[in-house]
Amino acid sequence: MAPVSKTSTPRLGKVLKRAFFDRDVREVAPDLIGATMLVDGVGGLIVEVEAYHHTEPAAHSFNGPTPRNQIMFGPPGYAYVYRSYGIHWCVNFVCEEAGSAAAVLIRALEPTHGLAAMRRRRHLQDVHALCSGPGKLTEALGITIAHNTLPLDRPPIALHARTEDVEVVAGIRIGITKAVELPWRYGVRGSKFLSKPFPK
């Protein structure tokens, strides 16, 4: 993926509608790599995600619906936002048909839009550190519990398909203790904006 330019922003691809997410979460997740995620015009290229499915114990939906995870049970194309370890917010995109309870966790972005706002919110200048983790990117984009259950194809959220080919690599997910063997983490090979490099 081309490095971020300080003088221009990459062109945006077609808008991703909610129907894009009405597929197997393991198909949606890699297809999101290289797409652009914006919240009120601030965001960047998705460079790292993880897929979660109700049939495996690392998913919040594994034990059935609760007030917190109800949005995961569909329909697809909505945001699922939750507090991680009581510290930071994480944003997920709900996938598959209603009742399936699958979602993609957005782990890292390459900042391209609204860098001044991101730097102000994160209190740092290093572009590589602005969105290099699920809690970092929600802080940079101003995502909170107020965004939970919002549709992914209406303001303030906008998603645009990737406009160029990217080399997608897969590996095991990070920071979990169950179903650790599943290679459901996807990212841009060699990206400097990942939360953690993929093994070579």
UniProtKB/TrEMBL annotation:
Under InterPro entries, the record lists: Formyl_transferase-like_C_sf (IPR011034), MPG (IPR003180), MPG_sf (IPR036995)
- Report if keyword Magnesium is assigned: no
Quote the EC number: 3.2.2.-
- PANTHER family, per this entry? DNA-3-METHYLADENINE GLYCOSYLASE
Keywords recorded for this protein, A-Z: DNA damage, DNA repair, Glycosidase, Hydrolase
**Entries under Gene3D superfamilies matching the protein:** Methylpurine-DNA glycosylase (MPG)
Q: What top-tier enzyme class does this entry carry?
A: hydrolase
| An example Gene Ontology molecular-function term | hydrolase activity, acting on glycosyl bonds
The lineage's top-level taxon is Bacteria
Entry similarity comment: Belongs to the DNA glycosylase MPG family.
Natural source organism: Bradyrhizobium symbiodeficiens
Which Pfam family is one of those matched by this entry?
A: Pur_DNA_glyco
- Protein name, as recorded: Putative 3-methyladenine DNA glycosylase
